[in-house]
Amino acid sequence: MELANFDIEKTRFIFDKLETFCDSSEVKKWENSVKETIDFFFKKYRICSYNLNKRSYMGIVIDCTSKSGKHFFLKMVPPMINRFSNEIETLKRLPKKLTCKIYEIDYEKNTFIMEKIIPGKRAHFDNNKNAYSDLFKVLNENKIKIDKFIEKKFKSFDEVVTRDYKILLSINQDHHNAKILYSYFIKKYSKLTKNEECFLLHGDVYKNNVLTSNKGLKIIDPLGFKAPFVMELVSICAYALYENQEQNENKKILNEFIEFFSPFVDPNTYSDALFCQLIKVFIPSLFEANDGGIRANKWLTIIKDLYPEIKPKLNT
Q: Which of these, 17, 9, 56, 16, lies nearest to 34 by C-alpha position?
């Protein structure tokens, strides 16, 4: 059986997407190195067949099978998004029972080889509520305290939002809605952190990053940032709201998650944390998404629906 020959053209959509919000020269530089890196690992691990993850544009993820029949994933993270080190360092610190094994890390090539999770299906919340309850209990019982390394290495949640807000302003200084929502974000997040200890969080626990396995749910693709633990509980609600097709059900969905997370947090705190999460995803959608504003408008509609006290200050 011959070794597989990776078709670099299959990754064209990733480079095109990155160029919408990253320096094109940096993207091109990375693109020119990708084929050589993949060929290196294909040869090293004797890869005879592969499948490219076509849903991932923040990196190249390849499902590989070796000549010996071993299955694993190869992941390359674009250096210009400055995410590789955070992802690796967060994975190292998350509870082992929730993560997959990492076989090799190449910091120079921003690439790592990791265990393939079986069956590895996306874990939809409605079908896995008990398993999600167990997952969040494990995260709660194993919070990652901030040491000197984490303090220096990782950004805080508000620093991430502020970074994206500044990028937006460099593109459009007169974005009224973003300015209003960012000002509310600062107030609400300051309130959240006033009396709450911060931890290193995965930061993106929802169905796309939670997979089924024969040993319970596994989490992948951490963002890695410092924040109160409540911020670990809101991504799953935010994306459930985004996928909801009935606007009049938004409050019902929020209340369902408030009830689900009641062992961890009170309703008002959860609502404030969700608002902060919604701003975190709304702001970059204004410049990352090449979709004519569809994603940004969807997030804005959710914000207006759930926080009506802010709606009169926003443009339609």
A: 9
Q: Residue 193: in which H helix or E strand, if any?
A: helix 176-194
The backbone region for 293, taken as left when phi is positive above 0, alpha when psi lies in -120 to 50, beta otherwise, is: left
Of 259, 271, 262, which Cα lies nearest the Cα of 231?
271
Query: By the 8 A CB rule, do 271 and 302 touch?
Result: no
DSSP structure class, residue 73: E
> In this structure, are residues 101 and 114 in contact, taking their beta carbons and an 8 Å threshold?
yes
What is the residue extent of each domain of the chain?
A: 8-116, 121-313
Topology (CATH) of 121-313 = Aminoglycoside 3'-phosphotransferase; Chain: A, domain 2 (3.90.1200)
- Report d(CA 306, CA 258) in Å as an integer: 13
Per-residue pLDDT of the chain (316 residues; tens, 9 = 90+): 789 999 999 999 999 989 888 899 999 999 999 999 999 999 999 999 999 999 888 899 999 999 999 999 999 999 999 999 999 999 999 999 999 999 999 999 999 999 999 999 999 999 999 999 999 999 999 999 999 999 999 999 999 999 999 999 998 878 999 999 999 999 999 999 998 999 999 999 999 999 999 999 999 999 999 999 999 999 999 999 999 988 789 999 999 999 999 999 999 999 999 999 999 999 999 988 778 899 999 999 999 999 999 999 998 7
- Domain 8-116 in CATH 3.40.1380.10? The answer is no
What pTM was estimated for this model as a whole? 0.95
